[in-house]
Every structure is written in structure tokens, then in C-alpha cells.
Amino acid sequence: MFFKHLRVLLCIIFGASAALAESPVLAFAPRVEAVVVIVEPESEPAPAPAQVPTAADMRRYAAIVQAAARAQGVEGDLVHAIIWAESSYNPDAVSSAGAAGLMQLMPETARLYGVRNVFDPEENIRAGVKILKRLLVQFDGDLELALAAYNAGPNAVIRAGNRIPPHAQTEAYVPRVLDYYRRLQARKA
Fold first, then answer.
1. Which carries the bigger pLDDT value, residue 159 or residue 54?
2. pTM score, two decimals?
3. What CA–CA distance (Å, rounded) separates 45 from 158?
4. CATH code matching the domain that covers 55-188, chosen among 3.30.470.20, 1.25.40.890, 3.40.50.1860, 1.10.530.10
5. Domain boundaries, given as residue ranges, for the chain
6. What distance in Å separates the CA atoms of residue 127 and residue 72, rounded to the nearest whole number?
7. Rg of the chain's alpha carbons, rounded to an integer?
8. Catalytic residue list
């Protein structure tokens, strides 16, 4: 649809009557002084809410999460909330963007953090928690910004003026992880 409209606009701009003859939208090319076309990047639709993890799902990775969280000084429930939101505890999960594993690491990021097998739960979680810790430090402990950066990248948060970037996926991701985090904390109360 976008390209059809773009073709029509270009035909108008350049007065290409031959191309317009094929278009059922316009029958003539009016004189146009200036045309401004604003193209906003299409964002991925927000993913469906993840299923509630079973106690078995959480127990399966609890020791790895606790060790990685303790090593980085990050709360284990927060790590569990990210895993829940990112992969629903599926260690073989792969996103359409190529992020993989429990904490959905991008291939280049995984390499930077020394991950040899992104589908290995221990390597994936250890690297994901290191990334989370780095983001928490970078954004002065602001949990919402760190989560937004985990999802969209730190540069997107910086470009947005140290706010949650205006991407549908990220705008849905941050409150979802925070909700999961609160729910996990409530289980202990």
C-alpha cells in the first residue's frame, strides 16, 4: 500500500503521465510546487502477553538466575520477569529480529558478552543479567529506562531524550515486565 502511494506521489512530482496511465487512482497530473513525504518506520506489533510460567518452569532455571543475579547485584525476580516477557521460559525461542534464548539476546550482543551457545540457558542468562546490570548503571538505576533499553537498545532511549522510545513494542514491553515483576514479588508476600 505504501509503495502504491509513493509511486503516485512520484508520478505527480515528476509528471510521469505514462506511469499514471497505469494507475487507477489518478487520471491527470496536476502541477505540484512541493510535496513533503514523511515516512515513519513501521514498528513490530506488540507481542501477545506471555503465558504465566509454571512453578516447574521457574524452578528449572532458578539456580542459574539466582547465581547470575547475585553475581551482578540484580534482583532475581526482575530477571525472572524479563525471561517471562522475552521467551516465556522457552530456551529455544527465536524472535523475528533474530534474538534468541531465554533472555532473547541478539547475535552480536551475545558475541560481545562471550556467549558461545545462545541457547544454553546458563550462558544466555549470565549474559542477559550482565546486560541488564550495565543498563541499570547507565540509566542511574531507572528501572523503566533500563527495561526500555533492554528491549529497544540504549541508543533508542538516549535518542528519545532518556525516555521510553515511542515504539509500540517497547511501550508495551516496559509495563508488561514491571507487571510480571510485581506479580512475582507478590508470590513471596
1. 159
2. 0.73
3. 22
4. 1.10.530.10
5. 1-39, 55-188
6. 10
7. 22
8. 86
